[in-house]
Specification:
alpha+beta; binds magnesium ion; two-stranded antiparallel ribbon; 5-stranded mixed β-sheet; 158 residues; 60s Ribosomal Protein L30, Chain: A
Length: 158
């Protein structure tokens, strides 16, 4: 059996009055993330981890932000497509573990829904999908609430 891991990282800027999409879930907050798509930083990190594990490039290669087709797109569509690309190469997706780095809002209440949503989109068991969140103790751009970052790690096998 062949085993690959992949890592993904993404950052988006926060702006007043935009919707905040994280892990495929709309999280009530005064600010949201700026981006060409719905700017779901967590999903983007997961997509990059999957593409990295399968050595298929990165999210910018597959879904360029210069392409009007992806303007305002629901990132769940990108994730579903990314999983298809990886599986088409003969890989099975074993698990995903991800971290959201943000100061506000509190993410804990939304984590079960995020895991459920991601598991459905990725066609995985909920036990194979982990989402965690941390603050940065008010340090850096996440701590100043200027943006949110996300890190994801996946394992695939064939
Ligand atoms: Mg992104």
């Amino acid at each position: 059996m062949k085993i690959h891991t992949g890592i993904g990282y993404d950052v988006h800027q926060l702006q007043e009055g935009l919707p905040l999409w994280l892990g495929g879930v709309a999280v009530p907050h005064s600010k949201g993330l700026v981006g060409h798509s719905d700017a779901d930083v967590l999903i983007h990190a997961i997509c990059d981890a999957l593409l990295g594990a399968a050595a298929l490039g990165d999210i910018g290669k597959h879904f360029p932000d210069t392409d009007p087709a992806y303007k305002g797109i629901d990132s769940k569509v990108l994730l579903r497509h990314t999983c298809e690309l990886v599986r088409r190469q003969g890989w099975a997706i074993a698990n995903v573990d991800a971290i959201l780095c943000l100061q506000k809002p509190k993410i804990a209440p939304f984590i079960p829904t995020m895991r459920q949503t991601l598991a459905e989109v990725m066609q995985l068991d909920i036990d194979d999908v982990s989402v965690k969140a941390t603050t940065t103790e008010h340090l850096g751009f996440e701590g100043r609430e200027e943006g949110i970052s996300a890190i994801a790690n996946v394992l695939i096998q064939k």
